[in-house]
Write a structure and sequence with these properties.
Rossmann fold, alpha/beta, 6-stranded mixed β-sheet, binds adenosine-5'-triphosphate, 489 residues, 3-stranded antiparallel β-sheet, Helicase, Ruva Protein, domain 3, 18 helices
Length: 489
């Protein structure tokens, strides 16, 4: 659009100068040549990036995907439309045009699309929504056309009957129309996709199925989700414990595991991990074994790898003696409070720097819980506040080490507000402004600070006891922590 205006203005200026008697021909010729070169470069760019990555037969099968049994089943059912298309045609069922996979990042959406291509013996073409985003007008729409052209060509060349086009990051390409800053270009691209999808017919020789993935389905334009476009929506969630175990088994198949390794234990402590995280855990464990020149991966390599994926690499950063004492008090505060409100919940406490953390407490996840009561949320907030409050109680001051804890506490308070667990009761939180939220947030935090401080004061001796041990040992397992807590109590 902007370029059209520029061309118009340019022609006007040239005409004006020509009327005034200036020789505008050489400059004009130069500009026209530059414009043609620019156009050529862009069209090359379209060809280069606009057609995605093509794979004739993907190596991924549904068995290579751990967990996700519901998603796999739903997907396979939908794909049977493609396999038994003759039967569908006989019954007059319109062909399936689009499947939307939605869920958090790293949960296996791309793997599912690849497995779908293999299951249906389709050609596979993969692009990312961000590849359609260009500052040049018309490029995105041309890329969409090119994509479908290429899919048809692939089907013909490979003598297949169908192709799957996989569009990752669909929310970039398919955001609600009018919601982007340079929305005209985005809207044109999305419109083109909808036109192509509407034009898909089974009797065109090639059946094309569009599979799209997003982790923000709510951001998508409703037109995309209309029946006849993305007919099926398949949720791909974070794996549960069984799913995590299945994924760990898949990714350790090609790795020598020591006999003592209990993958169930690793699956238990990795609540909230995605498939990508779990793959990384097995890989990191193998790297750790290599570093130790071990021939097989032991359980401690896997535990260490979980920590690394969760918190980052161990750092050689050596805080001063005073800082180390403060960190030990802070972490002991978290650990002691966690054991008081939820006995046997700490799996490890450490004052060794890792990633961004100077020290950390790891908790055993309450297995795969999807609901939290008010009491649980309050306990979590108290555990988060306990680090800074322990510092205040023993050393008289707080430090900047608690910034992350406060962020966590504020997020939990927000969850309480949304769930109607605040003095405001059930309310539309999105309509509250900062002035209305602030006093409620403060009230909740002040009350929980008071309760936390009371526990810290009552257990001051235990706190000092663990601090001392932690300063010497640097890291304590949950069992060691609990036995020390018993002896110093
Ligand atoms: P994104 O939304 O970030 O594009 P995604 O959901 O498409 O992520 P994938 O690219 O499919 O995730 O997965 C990344 C990697 O994580 C895979 O190559 C695989 O190693 C591992 N992985 C993820 N989920 C699973 C699973 N369910 N089973 C086995 N491996 C998995």
């Amino acid at each position: 659009m902007k370029i059209d205006i520029l061309i118009g203005v340019g022609i006007g200026v040239f005409a004006f100068l020509a009327v005034l008697g200036y020789n505008v021909f050489p400059v004009g010729l130069l500009l026209v040549t530059a414009f043609l070169v620019w156009k050529f470069v862009i069209s090359r760019q379209i060809l280069k990036t606009g057609n995605g990555v093509a794979i004739s037969t993907t190596g991924v099968e549904f068995e290579d995907i751990g967990g996700q049994s519901v998603a796999k089943k739903e997907l396979q059912e939908a794909l049977d439309f493609l396999i038994y298309s003759d039967r569908m045609k006989a019954l007059g069922i319109r062909p399936l045009k689009g499947i939307l996979l939605s869920g958090p990042t790293g949960t296996g959406k791309t793997l599912l699309a690849k497995a779908a291509a293999r299951y249906t013996n389709s050609a596979f073409l993969s692009v990312s929504g961000s590849e359609f985003v260009e500052m040049y007008a018309g490029v995105g729409a041309e890329r969409v056309r090119g994509l479908f052209r290429r899919a048809r060509e692939m089907v013909r060349k490979e003598k297949k009957t169908s192709a799957i086009i996989f569009i990752d990051e669909m929310d970039i390409l398919g955001a609600k129309r009018g919601s982007n800053v340079s929305h005209h270009e985005y809207d044109q691209t999305l419109n083109q996709l909808l036109i192509e999808m509407d034009g898909l017919k089974a009797d065109q020789g090639a059946h094309i199925l569009v599979m799209a993935a997003t982790n923000r389905p709510e951001a998508l334009d409703p037109a995309i989700l209309r029946p006849g476009r993305f007919d099926r929506q398949v949720k791909v969630d974070l794996p549960d414990k069984e799913g995590r175990l299945a994924i760990l088994k898949i990714h350790t198949k090609n790795k020598p595991l020591a006999e003592n390794v209990r993958l169930e234990e690793i699956a238990h402590e990795t609540f909230g991990f995605s498939g990508a995280h779990l793959e990384s855990v097995t890989n990191e464990a193998a790297i750790l074994a290599l570093r130790e020149e071990a021939n097989e991966i032991s359980e401690h390599h896997l535990h260490e790898a979980v920590e690394k994926v969760m918190l980052g690499e161990k750092l050689d950063r050596k805080p001063t003696k005073e800082e180390l004492r403060r960190i030990a008090i802070h972490e002991s505060g978290h650990a002691m409070l966690a054991e008081t409100v939820r006995p046997n919940s700490v799996s490890q406490v450490s004052i060794r720097s890792r990633g961004n953390a100077l020290g950390y407490v790891r908790h055993y996840p309450k297995d795969d819980l999807y609901l939290y009561t008010q009491a649980m949320l309050e306990e979590q907030i108290m555990v988060a506040l306990a680090g800074a409050l322990a510092e205040e109680q023993i050393l008289g001051t707080r430090s900047t080490g608690a910034a992350g804890d406060y962020e966590q506490a504020l997020n939990l308070v927000e969850t309480m507000l949304l769930a109607g667990m605040s003095p405001l009761g059930v309310t539309d939180v999105s309509r509250l402004n900062a002035e209305q939220r602030e006093p409620v947030t403060k009230e909740i935090l002040a009350e929980l600070e008071e309760r936390t401080m009371k526990i810290i004061k009552e257990n001051r001796q235990s706190l000092l006891g663990i601090t001392q041990i932690l300063e010497v040992e640097e890291t304590l397992s949950g069992e060691m922590l609990r036995s020390h807590l018993k002896t110093v109590a």
